Amino acid sequence: MAFRIPGIRKASLSASKGTNVPKGYLAVYVGDKMRRFVIPVCYLNQSSFQELLNQAEEEFGYDHPTGGLTIPCSEDEFLSLTSQLGGQ
């Protein structure tokens, strides 16, 4: 069963290494499998998302292994957070 979370876009596998990100969005990598998500840049202003950014800075500094922004949490946690942000 599939469901859609407003405001978040899952990157397709064919575009996972590309730079195909719409204006106003940002690609992030999440979870053990480094799954790529494309999120609205407005999420960066939210305090709950800023906590994740602080964790990313502590864990990776500014050298992210995927070349993109890596978020150090599980996919489930990330989807839960973004679904709350999308509903605001």
UniProtKB/TrEMBL annotation:
Protein name as annotated: Auxin-induced protein
Family: Belongs to the ARG7 family.
Organism listed in the record: Arachis hypogaea
Pfam families: Auxin_inducible
GO-annotated biological processes: response to auxin
